[in-house]
Specification:
The chain is mainly alpha-helical. The chain has helices spanning 11-31, 35-40, 42-57, 63-73, 78-102, 109-129, 136-162, 172-194, 198-209, 214-238, 247-272, 275-295, 297-329, 339-350. The protein has one domain (11-350). This is Probable membrane transporter protein.
Length: 351
């Protein structure tokens, strides 16, 4: 596995990025007289102060906070929450990614490159051929289910996940192909539908299958989400029908906050550790699921609520299957493997 080791830092690149961003933002505020729109949407700036910290310090994008605030608290369309997630992460997580790269933090480069290529194909396909046909309620539920399962995973597996050191060494070509499929499938589905999620998919593969250290897995997940967010915004603006009405105004208010907040999360978590932040964010992920079910209980009915709970259970079962594959690959388990396990293990051993 090719990892980038900490070497000489180039933080001046990040400072240059900040100067460029704030210069453009101030031009919009002053030159285009957009102060009133930004001030009117100040609650989103407040919410993203927390969301941006989570974006830089956890594998959960800033949309993890922005989406439920817009959709559940402000009762705006889920499609707007999705577009806002792409837009705000294109600043916050890009800023965090530049900070990570400038600090020369270790990344799972082979898997990351594969995921970026996969997302380059999958995200536009999902935006054009999947997301437009997903009803607003389903967007809410997809977000709620994925994030709840991810939160629950960390609430009962955090000590194990946080205990990984380094990363299981596989062949770089294998890692690239794994990343390619992860990027293609998650970009076309969860990311295109909700505006977030590809970071958590890549992170899950790293910590459960590859047993990667959080110091490797989280920065890698931040970079892939930044890339996918910029890609999503570019596709919507230059090829698609543009962003939902209201996204730009909320972006104006929150963008200057996340440009600093996400890198601040990267920096602070290196000092205090990742477990406390992950526990808090995991609890919020479960909380938004409960909130969604309560908000939509009349529409969902008992049957819909049970289906949502079963979907969470299915996601958790998928996480556990991935974890067992990882255990087999590193030799922690010698129990007979299923055909898919044997094929995966055989391929890795051959390399």
């Amino acid at each position: 596995m090719s990892l980038q080791s900490p070497q000489k830092q180039f933080l001046w690149i990040w400072w240059l990025w900040l100067a460029g961003f704030y210069g453009i933002w101030l031009w919009l505020m002053v030159g285009q007289s957009l102060w009133p729109q930004a001030i009117e949407h100040w609650p989103m700036a407040l919410a993203m102060a927390i969301g941006s910290y989570a974006a830089g310090s956890t594998p959960m994008g800033g949309g993890t906070v922005g989406f439920p605030v817009l959709v559940l608290l402000f009762e705006l369309p889920a499609s707007l929450g999705r577009d806002f997630s792409f837009a705000i992460q294109s600043i916050g997580m890009t800023s965090a990614s530049i900070f990570i790269l400038a600090r020369r933090q270790p990344l799972a480069w082979a898997l990351l490159k594969g995921a970026m290529l996969g997302a380059l194909v999958g995200t536009p396909l999902g935006i054009f051929f999947i997301a437009p046909y997903v009803p607003e309620l389903w967007i809410k539920l997809v977000f709620a289910v994925v994030w709840a399962s991810f939160g629950l995973l960390h609430l009962y597996r955090l000590n194990e996940i946080a205990g990984h050191s380094g990363m299981t060494e596989f062949d770089e070509n294998w890692d690239f192909r794994l990343g390619l499929w992860l990027g293609l499938l998650s970009g076309a589905t969860v990311a295109a539908v909700t505006g977030v999620g590809i970071d958590m998919v890549v992170y899950s593969a790293l910590v459960l299958l590859c047993r990667a250290d959080l110091k490797i897995a989280i920065p890698t997940s931040v970079v892939i989400m930044a890339y996918t967010s910029v890609l999503g915004v570019a596709v919507k603006l230059f090829i698609g029908d543009g962003l939902q009405a209201g996204v730009f105004e909320n972006w104006l208010a929150a963008a200057p906050v996340v440009a600093l907040g996400a890198p601040l999360g990267v920096f602070i978590v290196a000092k205090i550790g990742r477990k406390p932040t992950l526990l808090v964010v995991a609890t919020l992920c479960v909380g938004q699921f409960i909130w969604t079910l309560m908000t939509e209980r009349q529409v969902l009915g008992l049957t819909g609520i049970l289906i949502a709970l079963l979907a969470v259970a299915a996601c958790l079962a998928g996480f556990e299957r991935l974890r067992r594959w990882g255990a087999v690959l590193v030799g922690e388990k010698t129990e007979p493997a299923a055909p898919a396990h044997r094929a995966l293990l055989s391929e890795v051993k051959e390399r």
